[in-house]
Amino acid sequence: MASMNLVPVSEAVTPPRFYIKSGEKDGLISRKSYIRTHTHPNFIIRTKKLRSTLNRAHNHRSISNSIRNDLDLETGVIPRLAGKIAIITGAAQNIGKSTAKLFAKHGAKVIIADIQDDLGQSVCEEIGLETASYVHCDVTVESDVENVINFAITKYGKLDIMINNAAIVGDVKLSILENDKSDFDRVIDVNLAGVFLGMKHAARAMIPAGCGSIISIGSVSSAIGGVSPHAYTSSKHAILGLMKSVAAELGKHGIRVNCVSPYLIPPSVPAEITDLHPDIFVNIYSNIKGVSLKEEDVAQAALFLGSDDSKYISGHNLAVDGGFTTINPGFGLFAPAK
């Protein structure tokens, strides 16, 4: 700053004052204003807030750049299963199909294991053959289950997620007097023994890696009775016990074992159970007003348990039933007629 020419008015004046030449006055006033303003407590507070805001903005840009790098520009989602390998039994249709599509969308390679070859192949083509593979697998046949696990290891070198989804309802006979042992055995074989085999051979692949997630699809019938036939209810209750037992064993290997238990989803609900149109049935007994369960909702629950978001969750049954099994709306197949 150029030196200012100051002329004393009178030495007798106390305190002394100075004239400021024209053109220098504005500069001095601005300087005084700057000093007075920038040392005021309110200004200091505002300055600190501004710096904090700028720092947050900088951090936000850094986070945004990180998200942008992870974002799949084609699907518009941040992959939660990038690099993961998943096997899903019974994935040719319904919940299994929705789960396979969602997992693929989130970056996983999916292996569809089913006995419906044409449907299974079509799901792979729908997802994309670079992402999805189909392997014929009857979950009641141990060699089939072992084969699909070996397929994953051979093709990808690992298995991260095993979803035991394949299940059947069996004959819908409400009276136990009418139930056949052959049908009971068949339901238990698919719904329980199939899950057991899936857990066994998935663990064989996951233990050496020291990590993995095994998810079995249960039901509201895993928690309560009177919603489905006896054999189905028995099998789904048993899955929870098996899940807890295996979770207790495999935790030391870094493997998480959980269940997802959804409410009934149309159109998979047998008409013999509802005696109504499935949509009407679900709306009547839905606990959350204006919301009905979709297959995609169950898939989202499986996505959570399969991802690292649930890294400290094991031995848990995640109910996706809108509170049905907790609220107990008084519905049952054997409830007295009104």
Automatic annotation (TrEMBL):
<keyword id="KW-0560">Oxidoreductase</keyword>
<dbReference type="GO" id="GO:0016616">
    <property type="term" value="F:oxidoreductase activity, acting on the CH-OH group of donors, NAD or NADP as acceptor"/>
</dbReference>
<dbReference type="InterPro" id="IPR002347">
    <property type="entry name" value="SDR_fam"/>
</dbReference>
<dbReference type="InterPro" id="IPR036291">
    <property type="entry name" value="NAD(P)-bd_dom_sf"/>
</dbReference>
<protein>
    <submittedName>
        <fullName>Uncharacterized protein</fullName>
    </submittedName>
</protein>
<comment type="similarity">
    <text>Belongs to the short-chain dehydrogenases/reductases (SDR) family.</text>
</comment>
<dbReference type="Pfam" id="PF13561">
    <property type="entry name" value="adh_short_C2"/>
</dbReference>
